[in-house]
């Protein structure tokens, strides 16, 4: 069974989400990771890799990117939520 671990930073970042519809879409995408691990992209801006680590990946749910790292082949650590305009 897969584990998805949410960091305190991610949960704090979620406070910037203003609609329930978008919040639901973010969590639904994250919940797909164990079933569709290729859902995320390794094309992460250099600034985010510096902040979150070289293994950081992202899932885009406009206007945000969910930043996470695979812990192993089944588990995922969700590190943050970044507005796409701020991601550089």
Describe this structure in words.
The protein has 88 residues and is of the alpha+beta class. It has one domain (4-83): RelE-like (YaeB-like fold). It is 30% helix and 26% strand. It is built from 3 helices and 4 strands, in the order βαααβββ. It has helices at residues 8-13, 20-32, 46-52; strands spanning 4-6, 57-61, 64-70, 76-83. Strands 1-4-3-2 form a 4-stranded mixed β-sheet. β3 and β4 (76-83) form a beta hairpin. It is globular. The protein starts with a strand and ends in a 5-residue tail after the last strand. 25% of the residues are buried. The mean pLDDT is 93.
Task: Please outline the helices and strands.
Elements: E1 4-6, H1 8-13, H2 20-32, H3 46-52, E2 57-61, E3 64-70, E4 76-83
Parallel strand pairs: 1-4
Antiparallel strand pairs: 2-3, 3-4
Characteristics of this structure?
88 residues, alpha+beta, 4-stranded mixed β-sheet, 4 strands
Instruction: Give the oligomeric state.
Output: single chain
CATH topology: YaeB-like fold
Mean pLDDT level: 93
Question: Strand-and-helix sequence, N→C?
Answer: EHHHEEE
Q: How many β-strand stretches?
A: 4
Q: According to CATH, what is the class?
A: Alpha Beta
Helix content: 25-40%
Level-2 CATH architecture: 2-Layer Sandwich
């Amino acid at each position: 069974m897969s584990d998805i671990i949410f960091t305190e930073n991610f949960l704090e970042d979620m406070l910037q989400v203003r609609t329930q519809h978008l919040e639901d879409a973010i969590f639904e995408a994250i919940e797909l990771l164990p079933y569709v691990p290729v859902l995320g992209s390794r094309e992460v801006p250099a600034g985010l890799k510096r902040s979150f680590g070289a293994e950081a990946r992202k899932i885009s749910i406009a206007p945000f990117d969910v930043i996470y790292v695979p812990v192993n082949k089944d588990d995922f650590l969700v590190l943050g939520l970044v507005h796409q305009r701020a991601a550089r």
